[in-house]
Amino acid sequence: MPEPVIRFTKVDKRFGQSQVLRGVEFEIAKGEFFGLAGVNGAGKTTLIKCLLDFCALDGGAISLFGTPHRNPAGRSRLAFLPERFNPPYYLTGREFLRYMLSLHRQPWDESRLTDIVDQLGLENKALARPVRAYSKGMTQKLGLAACFLSERDLYILDEPLSGLDPSARIRVKSLLATLKSEGRTLFFTSHALHDIEDICDHMAILHQGSPRFRGSPRALAETYGETSIERAFLRCIEEA
Q1: pLDDT at position 39, please?
Q2: What is the number of helices (H) and of strands (E) in the chain?
Q3: In the predicted model, is pLDDT for residue 149 greater than 80?
């Protein structure tokens, strides 16, 4: 079998006396769109921080593209958008995107830029304005544009649809469908379970730092005998 893009093996993480992650274990295959769900404080963002080597593990292992997650070579193939995305306020949108493309060692392509910002519903003229003048939704679109322009093999997005209006959410889902057709891989978190259902092949539920379910959104509903994954999610965490 091909090596998974991401592999979590019995991952543990503590902050002081608090055990935040407990034996987290699952894999994400190449080309798979994978959603991570859980209540606030379940450990979703901490797991992403561990994956990106923002904090050290207390147990277990993580691999990216078959290499240890601390190896920069693996991380060079991904783009990341944090939940609390705050670009440098003194840059214009265009300056920020140019800077991010330079970090990703991608050439500046004006036609590609125009295409992406148009698809996201971010007006090209807004790129000339400083990002401190952007709304929450515009800032989120800017971060997504930077990720999509990077053309990475793996996208790690923490609550990427947060703050977007219904039109923008539809636009982002359409862009993600294009990425999937190109064989790219997505790992994202969301509190909106219907977004996971719309976007993802598979999902996992973290509860109190432990994995409680791993499978397709449909399998979650079937496992708990519910017609919606929202109700199935509640059953899953209540029976944990």
Answers
A1: 93
A2: 9, 10
A3: yes
Q: Which residue has the tokens 């093999």?
A: 153
- Indicate left, alpha or beta for 23 from its phi (over 0: left) and psi (-120 to 50: alpha): left
Residue 97: its H or E element: helix 93-103
Q: 103-133 pLDDT, tens per residue? A: 989 988 889 999 999 999 988 889 999 999 9
pLDDT tens by residue, 31-87: 999 999 999 989 999 999 999 999 999 999 999 999 999 999 889 999 999 988 999
| Separation between Cα atoms, residue 163 and residue 139, nearest integer Å | 9
The strand pairing partners of 37, in sequence order, are 205
- Quickly list DSSP for 132-182: GG--HHHHHHHHHHHHHHH--SEEEEESTTTT--HHHHHHHHHHHHHHHHT
